[in-house]
Write a structure and sequence with these properties.
Elements lengths: L2 H11 L7 H21 L3 H13 L5 E3 L4 E3 L1 H7 L1
Antiparallel strand pairs: 1-2
Helix pairs in contact: 3-4
């Protein structure tokens, strides 16, 4: 089994309840940190510029651009987000 297969197997077989409480706590903190970065980042000029660029370059209605009340193709939303 190569490294990628091992990672895939771990992800598939991993269950929240089986993780130690210290790991669960670290995951929760990482998610809160990511949420804070996302929220504050959407207020920046570069975030608005990236959103405008994504909507113009990859138009569509497949996915939401977080906290900008706009949509684009999946590629465009991934770029902007």
């Amino acid at each position: 089994m190569n490294g990628l297969e091992r990672v895939i197997r771990f992800i598939r077989e991993c269950h929240w309840e089986a993780l130690p409480s210290s790991v669960q706590g670290q995951i929760k903190m990482a998610l809160l940190d990511e949420l804070g970065c996302t929220l504050s980042g959407t207020l920046t000029r570069i975030s608005r510029m990236a959103t405008d660029y994504a909507v113009g370059t990859w138009p569509g209605d497949e996915a939401t651009i977080l906290l900008h009340d706009r949509r684009a193709s999946a590629i465009g939303a991934a770029f902007a987000n």
